[in-house]
């Protein structure tokens, strides 16, 4: 990102359709499957710092905000965000939808890029790819963070993009806990009511069997091994190099 970490771009850019585009990085310490994973280190950096620094390299974004909870255990996340110059929103522990929506509102976002902090190698170039497609197609919800038979993306390189008005629509329509916890589930369950888009992964990363998120201790160990094989700064490591290295290490043979 050309501007300082987390800061919005100019008002002139904000006048473009769908702007400002704000990345909301969602994180908390109290993960059930892997407690404190957000501050576990990969390659010498806390995962949350690696995620924030990689997201801030996306040139399609007008700002980045860290959305965490009001729980005292998440003070460590606030400290990291402040050190990086990233704006912070602290909200409900249980109501993730409220937290993401209010974080976007605090940054005056019209288009929300939802980033989960358990994706340490989220790729700025793939953020730019899906944001550009979302804006050009005037979609209401777009994604490239999970593999489908259509997009062939690895798990954990991309993000979700959703209009703020759609989040407000979900907020007003559903009070079910599963919709409040899994922010975009309502859209997925009601796809006929929304314009949903994805994009095909570039051939260099079109390997849906690749898993780059961190949910368990085994995942964390695998990502640490992957990071050890990097030949550059982890913040600058491209999606194609991440996938190439992953396949070399874990596919049982050399990459074609």
Molecular structure report:
With 256 residues, the protein is an alpha/beta fold. The chain has a single domain, classed as Spore Coat Polysaccharide Biosynthesis Protein SpsA, Chain A, CATH 3.90.550.10. 36% of the residues lie in helices and 14% in strands. It contains ten helices and nine strands. The strands form two sheets. A seven-stranded mixed β-sheet has the order 5-4-1-6-8-7-9, with helices on both faces. The longest helix has 14 residues, at 124-137.
Shape label:
globular
CATH architectural grouping:
Alpha-Beta Complex
Residues in helix, %: 25-40%
Q: How many strands appear in the DSSP assignment?
A: 9
The major sheet is characterized as: 7 strands, mixed
Write down the Rg: 17 Å
What is the first-to-last residue Cα distance?
32 Å
Mean pLDDT rating: 91
Q: In terms of per-residue confidence, which ranges show pLDDT below 50 for 5 or more consecutive residues?
A: 1-15
Strand order of the largest sheet: 5-4-1-6-8-7-9
How big a fraction of the residues is strand?
Answer: 5-15%
- CATH class equals Alpha Beta
- SS summary, helix count: 10
Q: CATH superfamily assignment?
A: Spore Coat Polysaccharide Biosynthesis Protein SpsA, Chain A
The SS-based structural class is alpha/beta
What is the string of SSEs from the N terminus onward? HEEEHEHEHEHEEHHHEHH
Quote the CATH topology: Spore Coat Polysaccharide Biosynthesis Protein SpsA, Chain A
